[in-house]
Amino acid sequence: MNNTHKDNIILGIESSCDDTSAAVLINGKVYSNVVANQDVHTSYGGVVPELASRAHQQNIVPVVDKALKQANVKATDLSAIAFTKGPGLLGSLMVGTAFAKSFALGLNIPIIDVHHMKAHVHAHFIQKPNENVETPNFPFLCLTVSGGHTQIVLIKSPLKMTIIGETIDDAAGEAFDKAAKQLGIDYPGGPLIDKMAKDGNEKRFKFTYPKVAGLNYSFSGLKTQFLYFLQEQTKSNSNFIEENKKDICASYQSHVVSYLLKKLALAIKETGCKDVAIAGGVSANSKLRKELINLGAQTNCNVFIPSIEFCTDNAAMIAMSGYFMYKEKLFAKQTVTPQARINI
Length: 344
Ligand code: KG4
Ligand code: ZN
What we know:
Layout: E1 9-14, E2 19-26, E3 29-37, H1 49-70, E4 80-86, H2 90-107, E5 111-115, H3 116-122, E6 140-145, E7 150-157, E8 160-166, H4 172-182, H5 189-197, H6 220-236, H7 240-271, E9 275-279, H8 286-299, E10 302-304, H9 315-327
Parallel strand pairs: 1-4, 4-5, 6-9, 9-10
Antiparallel strand pairs: 1-2, 2-3, 6-7, 7-8
Helix pairs in contact: 1-2, 3-9, 4-5, 4-6, 4-7, 5-7, 7-8
The structure holds 5'-O-[(R)-(carboxyoxy)(hydroxy)phosphoryl]adenosine and zinc ion.
């Protein structure tokens, strides 16, 4: 592509957890989105923060280089660099932040500090060069479900978002990953539970809903319930897990999904929103995707489901947030520091 000085070219950088990613967005369209996953955590049953930041340090330069090359963009063509400021693991965030700051300083271009959970919502606005996909109309609702968050967000405009419900303890992604660990499934367990559940009977085992008022969620009780269920069953049959893994995964997954959508249905009723979306790693879940379509039909709402590539952590969504912020000239100072926890 022959870039002109009028083009708005944003490099996005994501390093909040265990994926190092870089993406290039030209005039709001994504031209590259490179993600390097970190296999190093698999055998530990979860992300090891020190190993994650070390892997980010190894990956960041080749990942950015690949993203620029794939988009056919030179560093000197860039208009701005957007990076994840938080929330996330501090050591991981520091790698992306330090890289973005020094790269931008050398190029004399602005930096844009992006909120990771807002960026998950912005995944709904990512378009490929020849695509013209339908995007949600404002105001809309987004169930944002990841490894660290579970939120029902009311989005009034690209940058105006309010959390109207959220988990009071664990996140939905954790509920999947921790259940997977108890079943002897490697980290991250969410995608593997999803895979096993495909051939299982979801009606076989029953679980109860945690009692939390309004639009909030709780997943820590469910984790304990699942643990006691496995302990009870394995007392009489030590092979219970191996013999019933697919049915256990299907029943548990179905329960988590119906709990997530029960509150989302309440949010639709309370807000009157007609456009409803899901985002974040757990929105890659096939049962959640299917049941959201059913919920849309029941409530007469339009549903928006991101492509799998943009559900889990990726830099295209960071660049997309960056694009919205660039238009408002919402730039960060070179003194900006990453934050493990920040409000939306
Ligand atoms: O958004 P994400 O990539 O990272 C965070 O911001 O946390 O989400 C990761 C989470 C993990 O808990 C992972 O198990 C879960 O998303 N996940 C899934 C699926 N794919 C990823 N959970 C259920 N089913 C899936 N297919
Ligand atoms: Zn995420």
